Amino acid sequence: MNIILFGPPGAGKGTQAKRLQKSRGLIQLSTGDMLRAAVAAGTEYGKKAKEIMEKGELVPDEVVINIISDRLEEDDVKNAPGVIFDGFPRTVAQAEALDKMLAEKGMKLDAVIVLDVDDDALVERITGRFTCAKCGKGYHEKFERPKVEGVCDECGSTEFTRRADDNEETVRQRLEAYHAQTAPLIEYYEKAGIVKRVDGMASIDEVTRQIEQVLDSLS
Ligand code: ADP
Ligand code: ADP
Ligand code: ZN
Question: Is pTM beyond 0.70 here?
């Protein structure tokens, strides 16, 4: 089963993808995570992507399309029961490239799960977001604190990081990019009849429950 978790920045895509990875063995493919890894490693395209990401704009289509295309060729992905696209596609050109790639590999998209969240809530979610530096588990100052203050629930690390682009100004720019370039994709997938809407304003557990319900209805 291959799905897209779709929604604006801060909607909860990463949080939910990690839960589905655990519950169903699906593999999370986050272009944002892959780009941040390239930036940290200082690769050629990482250097180019860094500035664009700090401004809250989209990196060129060909860059992310190549990243995804390469990732789909790796053994763990090939052997998995399916993948979760998180943060990809973000433009019509990316969606078209994805359709082509999947067709070539004999794969198909089963659902595009749209997480609907208001812009004001997104700003609050993103400005309060932090992540375990060791295992990548996501947290929120208000909505998802570690069970023991300052200690990661998953791995026990006491080091946490915040993303350079998770500040209010960049968030506004990212939301603008979302509404202008990414939201129109919902219509693209409506035409394919695979859009499923979930109330992204609900609690993290409730959103998980709604997504699991959608996935159960597919299989
Ligand atoms: P995305 O991957 O869509 O950008 P994240 O999954 O990183 O979003 O979530 C953004 C922030 O909001 C994180 O700090 C996360 O803990 C928190 N969060 C995620 N889902 C919810 C929710 N349903 N209610 C409240 N906070 C949430
Ligand atoms: P979020 O969902 O919280 O906005 P991501 O981690 O998905 O964040 O993306 C962070 C940044 O990485 C984006 O603002 C953009 O600059 C870049 N990026 C990630 N995925 C894509 C993509 N599919 N196309 C273009 N740029 C992307
Ligand atoms: Zn951790």
Answer: yes
